[in-house]
User: What shape does this take?
Amino acid sequence: MSWQGIGDQHLDKTRAHIKTLENHIYTLVDKKSELKASSEKQIKELSDEKSTLEGNLKDLQAQKDEINNQLTTLQAQSLSNDADNKKSIEALQDQIEKLNREIEKKNIEVKGYKDRITDAINWKKQRLDEQDKEIADLKDKLSKKETELKTEKDRNSELERAIEDANQLRQDAEKTVERVEKAINAE
Assistant: This one.
């Protein structure tokens, strides 16, 4: 097989490898877009749930404030009617404690949602960073393969020029031999 044939085979293999790398890059870019869209949807859902919980927390806080106001009113009235109001005050204090426990529970749930949102954002960011790195690595490989292909083309061009020069030298040598033979035969 000639040098040119070997060079052409190597060029064909390099082109096929470059095409495979390009296809892999497009696939990774598509996956990255899908992952980003999925992340944004999940983060939106978690944010909506967090907003709902925060709304519930505000409602509970308003109830607590209302009961505190009632308690304050009853405590003021208790100076004149201590015995009757004592049970009402204790009942309201129990309600306040219950609401405080519910508020604490809701605060824990809100914190949990905040943590889940943060974890989801961090995980998605890490995945996107990994995808970006993989795409960059593949682009580097593609660039190297393109450089190799150019070098191979340059090398093949040099080989073709060398073959042409060798053919020219052979033809010149054959012509010289013919002239010498004619000169010898003429003598």
In short: The first helix runs from residue 3 to 78. The chain has a mean pLDDT of 84.
